[in-house]
From TrEMBL:
Any one of the GO BP annotations: regulation of secondary metabolite biosynthetic process
Species of origin: Hominilimicola fabiformis
Coiled coil: none
Cofactor: Zn(2+); Mn(2+); Fe(2+)
Name of the protein: Transcriptional repressor
Assigned protein family: Belongs to the Fur family.
Length: 136
């Protein structure tokens, strides 16, 4: 991956310390993060500053924002060229990367396909166990 400074300057953003730390947290993460998740990992920034920076990075197209079923939170991730799919737990809302692409892009008449989005919903082991216990 390109270094953070050059990504920021390429889209015309000043490389402030705060933007760099948000980018760093996102690039170290192995799943998309909420503003609260990012906030927990950066120093000396308010939640609203983190939110503003994340939104700015989205606006510039270097971070993408996901919404997931049954959650009012946004999940941010750094776009690094490749597309990704996620398995999302309906219990704890944990998002995991799925390292395969289960989609075969269809041929659509008079339409050029440039990408797709797909989220897989289910329950992680922990939440599945809880469900089983409740059911008994
Ligand atoms: Zn879960
Ligand atoms: Zn795919």
């Amino acid at each position: 991956m390109e270094d953070i400074n050059s990504i920021l300057s390429k889209v015309g953003l000043k490389c402030t310390k705060q933007r760099i730390s948000v980018m760093q947290v996102l690039s170290d993460a192995d799943a998309p993060l909420t503003v609260e998740n990012i906030y927990d990992k950066v120093d000396g920034m308010s939640l609203s500053t983190v939110y503003r920076i994340a939104e700015k990075l989205c606006e510039k197209g270097i971070v993408s924002k996901h919404t997931i079923q049954d959650s009012d939170k946004f999940y941010y991730e750094l776009i690094n060229g490749e597309h990704r799919h996620y398995a999302i737990c309906l219990g704890c809302k944990e998002m995991r990367y799925v390292d395969i692409c289960p989609v075969h892009s269809p041929h659509i008449d008079n339409f050029t396909v440039t990408g797709h989005k797909l989220e897989i919903y289910g329950y992680c082991d922990k939440c599945q166990k809880k469900l089983n216990t409740k059911g008994r």
